Amino acid sequence: MTQFIKYHQAFGVYGILLENNKLLVINKSRGPYKNRYDLPGGSLEKGESLADAMQREFNEETGVNIEILRNLGVMDFMLPWKWKGYTHVHHIAVYYLVSKMGGEISVPEQFEGQDSLGAGWVTEQEVSQDNASPLVLKAFEWLNKKDLDVESVVYNQWEVK
């Protein structure tokens, strides 16, 4: 018997902020990356530009105000995630290199749609598929190669924690 796969399509913008060889990440409170490190960022509000969404999401999730330095490219990830009748998620992520303009890392205000429990710094050696989202793993790969792959990253075995 063939398993029926139904994809939820998620689209978002995500920022890479590096300081002293550490990446700023959030602790994810829900979704397929729950209880893992994830990049600050997220979905656009209606009528919002990519850049405006990037700056708003980064600040909401970390307390840090950013400047967007450049668009690094787009990656997509596919993985199992049972949610609202869907069996999988197809996550499309626009990556930006950002720099800190102000603000301080703070515990984010909790509201409908907020999925950050707070932010912190991690090194590449501290992350793995067990404790980080595919976005974080790909961010460290970009930091090493200065290039994003063209092919989708497919996780057939993904555990939502």
TrEMBL record:
GO terms for molecular function: hydrolase activity. The keyword Metal-binding does not apply. Signal peptide: none annotated. The keyword Hydrolase applies. Its EC number is 3.6.-.-. Keywords: Hydrolase. Pfam families: NUDIX. InterPro entries: Nudix_hydrolase, NUDIX_hydrolase-like_dom_sf, NUDIX_hydrolase_CS, NUDIX_hydrolase_dom. Residues 6-144 form the Nudix hydrolase domain. It comes from the Bacteria. SUPFAM superfamilies: Nudix. Belongs to the Nudix hydrolase family. This is NUDIX hydrolase. The lineage of its organism: Bacteria, Bacillati, Bacillota, Bacilli, Bacillales.
